[in-house]
Amino acid sequence: AQSVTQPDIHITVSEGASLELRCNYSYGATPYLFWYVQSPGQGLQLLLKYFSGDTLVQGIKGFEAEFKRSQSSFNLRKPSVHWSDAAEYFCAVGATVNMEYGNKLVFGAGTILRVKS
Amino acid sequence: DGGITQSPKYLFRKEGQNVTLSCEQNLNHDAMYWYRQDPGQGLRLIYYSQIVNDFQKGDIAEGYSVSREKKESFPLTVTSAQKNPTAFYLCASSRGRREGTDTQYFGPGTRLTVL
After folding, report:
1. Relative to the CA of B94, which of A27, A95, A98, A117 has its CA 20 to 30 Å away?
2. Residue A87 — φ and ψ, nearest 5°?
């Protein structure tokens, strides 16, 4: 079964600074990979996803993520953070073939981003 | 506007009561999911349904039940058997992929508090 680790529970960055949120996964092959964002008390919004092809994926709100097979990572980046980016970010991994336990999405524990002015 | 709606936004329950959380989607998606979210634990899958009249248990199904009588609706009942039901509940849907995991889209959530 697949699994996801987000090593950082909290990250604080200054407004205008660059951001990188880490995500490491475990899966027997190249997985499907996702980043979602959640504002307090809200649902999850899809930022970007990787299924195949170019390993650098562009998403909404100026975010991008790079799939690195050799490091089993899918880190999320943004060159200049805005105060409105403060939220919780979740990395998720999915299977590329049908699994007997269902094709579920497995989520990391999340990283809370704080932005200081 | 296409999307997923969940109601109510806030729900309070007395111990020993069953409560039902509503989830409706007008995206014409085949698959629907229920997740539970607790602080610091990410999302955990409760139940999922890949097609009408069929559903499977997820990782934490004990104390919960679901039905899928209509494509657009996937209600979740939190029964009195659920020992610690206070949490944020999220519903999601996806088109239903023939092979592998599909992109899931989420509703706004319901916060359930047991008094």
Report:
1. A27
2. 180, -175
